[in-house]
Structure formats: structure tokens, C-alpha cells
Design a protein that fits this description.
The protein has helices at about 10-15, 20, 25-30, 50-60, 65-75, 80-85, 95-105, 110-135, 145-150, 150-160, 170-180, 190-215, 220-230, 240-270, 270-280, 285-295, 325-330, 365-380; strands spanning about 35-40, 45, 60-65, 140-145, 300-305, 310, 315, 320-325, 385-390, 395, 405, 405-410. The protein contains 18 helices and twelve strands. About 55% of the residues lie in helices and about 10% in strands. The protein has about 400 residues and is α+β, with helices and mostly antiparallel strands. A hairpin with an 8-residue loop joins strand 10 (about 395) and strand 11. The chain binds protoporphyrin IX containing FE (HEM).
């Protein structure tokens, strides 16, 4: 194993090294050794502890990076359509615009609406398991990521948005490119592929929007188009905001959930006792999914920006400071979780920060949880002899962590 950095700024840099991308967890501990709120050499503050991350996410003066902060930190960012596109979405917008955008979509993802979607998810899971059975029936290995973990969430978000199934495989390729722009901007010159993907997605959604305008349906895009065309002035979404939020919903809606499914299956393989309980105990799945989210959060971190001088749990944060919020490290804070590296689905009061917190708390949290709670037990029950059929391969990303391949034999 590579030697661990001792200085916090070196440990931060190590997170995005090839070794850190494979296994970031020892590096979080190297940072934690310096405290729960750590200042690094360039002035950035790193929230490592659970309470510190919660406080950072809830502090109104710590804002998401938006066009104002980009102008200061990344002059030239406007030449990149990927950054322009995401900056029009709620994830990179602060109040009051953030509240206006978020209002338009939250209704689609309430706990009640998600429960109404459950039967459709059960049917989709069943269909995809049938497809896996066809592919792997003769003993051939099947890549769980490509054949299931990606297909389920993309089909669910596709159904909500009302985009046809025939476009969904294309989404995987194009989303993999566009999300390069979400990995934290380090070098603007490396965004060519993300820009091209954003251009393709923008053209695609512009076309869908026109079709919905002519023939509205009951899907989310039709509702957003109505809000764009007829909304009261204070509610209206601009055309760019509409497209930016659709791209966000698409990639936020499946890239992350795909990896929750991958981490869930990987965890079940590593703990056969959990796999057995997922098969046998209907009430076990929610705790298992929550613990998977805690130990392997698909989104490892987020960041904020101090709009004014602010005090964060007694630490002064001067205006202009970037705050890196290490969600994955918070989830393993020994003050919050005894024996934090042990996977224990029976943990009481398990509230990982994997969906963030504060006003940007993930819109799709209930949906993602429901998909995993339905899919993982159904998969393990359908294939009682399911087993790894080769090494699990992690994708080469730090921020959105997951597998690129997870080959399985159906048994
Ligand atoms: C396991 C799956 C998922 C994980 C781990 C995840 C994680 C996150 C996190 C950490 C944030 C907050 C980012 C921040 O504060 O900077 C977020 C925001 C968001 N997520 Fe998710 N997400 C998941 C699934 C979904 C799904 C299924 C959807 C939609 C269908 C979705 C839509 C969104 C949106 C729109 C936001 C922005 C909310 C805002 O800015 O107000 N996510 N997600």
C-alpha cells in the first residue's frame, strides 16, 4: 500500500491520485488526524467530522459555488458549456433563485409520490432480472453495472421525465462525459468532452421541450415546460434554467443510484450473512441500504463558499474561503459512529450524510432508497447462487465513487 501523507494538503491531493481514487478511506483518516475542521495551506477549510459537516451544510452564509464565485476563482469558465449548463441548475444556485427552481420539482419526489412509484419499480426490476437471466443463463458472466445497476435508475428517471427507453443507453455514455464537469474544476482545458456532452444533452432536451409544448403529457418535463411558459413571474424558469435542471435531474438521478446498487451488491458479496438476510427478512433492506450509503456514499463530498465572514463552530471563516465538506469522512466519524469502519446494518439512529443536508438536501433521496430497497432483495432472491465472476473494477473517479464493472455469475 502507498504511504499515507502526513500533511493535510498532501492528504487532500492524495484523494484524487490513482491510489486515492481506488481507496480514499485511509486518506480521510490522515486528514482527520489533524482535527474535525482542518485548514489547509491555500486557506481552504475541510470539514471532516459529522457535526462540522452538518453545520457547514446548514450555514446560510456558506453558499454553493455559483456564477459569482466562478467569476472570481475560474475566470474563463463561461467559455465552457458544461459549466454554464450546470451553473443554471439548482445545485449551483443560491437563494432566492435556488428556492424558485427547487419548488418546481420537489413535488415529484415526495415520500408519497415515491411510494406510488413503487409498483412500477417492482415491474422494472422484474423485467431487468429476466433480461439478466437470459444473458447469464448458460453460465456466462454478466456485468451487473451495465446490465442492471445502470438500467434500473435510468429507466425510472426516464419514466419520470417521459423520455423513451430507446434513448436510455445513450444517456449512460453522454452522462459519463458531462459529469466530468462535476468532479471539481481543476483544469478548465480538460473540459472538452464534458462540453461536447453538455451540448448534445442541451440539444436533446431542447427538442423534447418543443415536443412537450406541442403535446403536453403528465411527465415532469411537461410540468416544467408549463412552469416556464405560464408560471407567475416569481416562479418562472428561464429556458437555460429549464435545460440545466433537466440535465441535472438526469445525471443526478441515475449516476449516483447506479453506484448505490453496485456498492450494495458488493457489500452483500463481502458479507454473505447480509445477503442471506436480504433474501429472507423483508424488513432488513432499509437498514442495509442505509449502512451501504454510510460506508460507501456514491457522492463522497461537496463544497461551499463563504459569501461573508462567518463563524463555523467557533472557527472563523473569512469571506471567500472554500469549504470542502467530506461527506464520506463524516459518515465514519468515530464520535458519531462507534467502530465506524465496520459495516453493521443494525446500527441504531443511522443518519448518514450521503444525501447532503440543508437547503440542497438531495431531492431524489427517497426515490434512490426505494429503488435499492426493492432491487437488492429481489436480485438475491431471484438468483440464490449469485456470486462474483471476476474482480470488481472501480471507476477512475473520486467524487462520484462506484464500480465500472461488477461481473457476476448467476449460479
Ligand atoms: C444514491 C443516490 C443519490 C445520492 C448519493 C445523491 C446525493 C446527492 C447529494 C450529496 C446532493 C447535495 C449536493 C450538495 O449539497 O452540494 C444531492 C443533490 C441533488 N440530488 Fe441527489 N443523490 C442521489 C440520487 C438522486 C436522484 C434519484 C435524484 C433525482 C431523481 C437526485 C437529484 C438531486 C438534485 C436535483 C439535487 C440538487 C438539490 C438542490 O440543489 O437543491 N439525486 N444529491
Amino acid at each position: 500500500m502507498a504511504e499515507l501523507a502526513t500533511r493535510p494538503d498532501e492528504a487532500i491531493a492524495a484523494l484524487v491520485s490513482p491510489q486515492g481514487r481506488r481507496d480514499p478511506y485511509p486518506h480521510y483518516e490522515a486528514i482527520r488526524a489533524h482535527g474535525n475542521l482542518v485548514r489547509v495551506d491555500d486557506g481552504m477549510l475541510v470539514a471532516v467530522g459529522y457535526d462540522e459537516c452538518v453545520a457547514a451544510l446548514r450555514e446560510p452564509l456558506l453558499r454553493v459555488q455559483d456564477e459569482n464565485s466562478h467569476d472570481v476563482v475560474h475566470p474563463g469558465w463561461r467559455e465552457h458549456s458544461s459549466l454554464r449548463g450546470f451553473t443554471e441548475s439548482m445545485l449551483y444556485t443560491n437563494p432566492p433563485d435556488h428556492s424558485r427552481m427547487r419548488r418546481q420539482v420537489v413535488g415529484t419526489f415526495t415520500a408519497r409520490r415515491v411510494q406510488e412509484l413503487r409498483p412500477a419499480v417492482v415491474r422494472l426490476v422484474d423485467r431487468l432480472l429476466g433480461r439478466m437471466a437470459d444473458l447469464g443463463g448458460g453460465g456466462a458472466p454478466v456485468d451487473f453495472m451495465a446490465e442492471f445497476a445502470f438500467r434500473l435508475p435510468v429507466a425510472v428517471i426516464g419514466e419520470l421525465l417521459g423520455v423513451p427507453e430507446s434513448d436510455q443507453v445513450w444517456f449512460r455514455a453522454v452522462s459519463a462525459e458531462v459529469t466530468l464537469a462535476l468532479e471539481g474544476i481543476t483544469d478548465l482545458s480538460r473540459l472538452d468532452r464534458a462540453d461536447a456532452a453538455m451540448d448534445e444533452l442541451s440539444d436533446y432536451f431542447a427538442d423534447v421541450i418543443e415536443r412537450r409544448r406541442r403535446r403536453p403529457g403528465t411527465d415532469l418535463i411537461s410540468a416544467l415546460v408549463r412552469a416556464h411558459d405560464d408560471g407567475a413571474d416569481g416562479d418562472r424558469l428561464s429556458r437555460d434554467e429549464l435545460i440545466g435542471n433537466l440535465v441535472l435531474l438526469l445525471v443526478a438521478g441515475f449516476d449516483t443510484t447506479t453506484h448505490l446498487l453496485g456498492h450494495g451488491l458488493h457489500t452483500a458479496f463481502e458479507h454473505p450473512g447480509f445477503a442471506a438476510r436480504l433474501r429472507a427478512e423483508p424488513g432488513f433492506a432499509p437498514g442495509f441500504v442505509e449502512e451501504t450509503l454510510r460506508c460507501e456514499p456514491p457522492v463522497q463530498a461537496t463544497s461551499r463558499w463563504a459569501a461573508e465572514d462567518v463563524d463555523l463552530m467557533g472557527t472563523p471563516v473569512p469571506a471567500g474561503t472554500k469549504v470542502l465538506v467530506l461527506l464520506a469522512a463524516a459518515n465514519r466519524d468515530p464520535r458519531r459512529y462507534p467502530d465506524p469502519h465496520r459495516c453493521d446494518p443494525d446500527r441504531p439512529d443511522n443518519r448518514p450524510l450521503s444525501f447532503g443536508g440543508g437547503i440542497h438536501l438531495c431531492v431524489g433521496a427517497a426515490l434512490a432508497r426505494m429503488e435499492a430497497q426493492v432491487a437488492l432483495p429481489a436480485l438475491l432472491r431471484r438468483f440464490p447462487g449469485l456470486a462474483p465472476a471476476g474482480p470488481a473494477v472501480y471507476r477512475d473517479r473520486w467524487l462520484v465513487r462506484g464500480h465500472s464493472r461488477l461481473p457476476v455469475a448467476l449460479g
